[in-house]
Amino acid sequence: MLEALQMPFFQHALAAGFLIAIAIGLIGPLTMANRMTFMSGGIAHATYGGVGAAIFFGTSVLTGAMVAALLAAAVISFVAYRYAHRADTVIGIVWAVGMAIGVILSDMTPGYNVDLMSFLFGSILAVGLEDIQMMALFDLTALGLVWYFYYDFIALSFDPVFARLQGVKTELLHLLLLGLVAVTVVLAMRLVGLIMLIALLTMPSFSAERYVRSLGGMVIFSIIVSIIYIVTGLFLAYWYDLSAGASIVIVAAFGTISLFLIKKYRKR
């Protein structure tokens, strides 16, 4: 363990993991309470189209991924409110088209860019100081927004119709939440990977739901278990030379199942 902590790349990955855990623990319960899991998956997979476009045109991958993620969030949010009965269909289309664009553009890029795999499945080596700085800034911004709109988010999560009647701008709040999901996806993709991120957004929140009753409690519980899952997964990835994202998700799955069984046993 001490040997790993002396490695600069692992220090970067560990710092990014802590910051990503805060973002996931903060955003995950809100997406789960608002039944946005499938929407989050659509945004995550559509982001790959921005990654492929950035590599094809030789621009910043972070910028390309951010544009694609925010565009997907805007489209999904618009459809979810205006054409709710077709929302799942449009999300599936955005999901598939985004991935297809990314694959085609990466195929058309001269040479083989092995770095593409790190965006899909995560890589300890891919995390840099810039990622850490941006994630720290985003965590502060997200914490401020959730704190400011906390009671509006509660109203949106449990009774959106009543919230709208009380003057809460639910459509704008819905778009804001999906925008936070989009930025979380982009900043976490190097460490966790786009394919694995949706599972990590879901599992800590699922565990928290069984142990606490308030939305604030779910956020705190999710942040704690997310930190445990990510740090444990990173050490496993380092020790056994595994994909960071896959290791983290396996640890999260094991932890989620264990917490579920503990709760069930205690009830009996």
Could you write a compact summary of the structure shown?
By secondary structure, the chain is an all-alpha fold. It has helices at 2-5, 8-33, 37-57, 61-82, 87-108, 115-121, 129-148, 150-158, 160-165, 170-188, 194-211, 215-240, 244-267.
Features:
mainly alpha, 0% strand, single chain, 13 helices, 268 residues
Helix content: over 70%
Q: Provide the succession of SSEs.
A: HHHHHHHHHHHHH
Average pLDDT taken over every residue: 87
Into which percentage range does the β-strand content fall?
under 5%
Q: What's the β-strand tally?
A: 0
Largest sheet: none
Query: What is the CA-atom radius of gyration, in angstroms?
Result: 18 Å
Which class of secondary structure composition applies to the elements?
A: mainly alpha
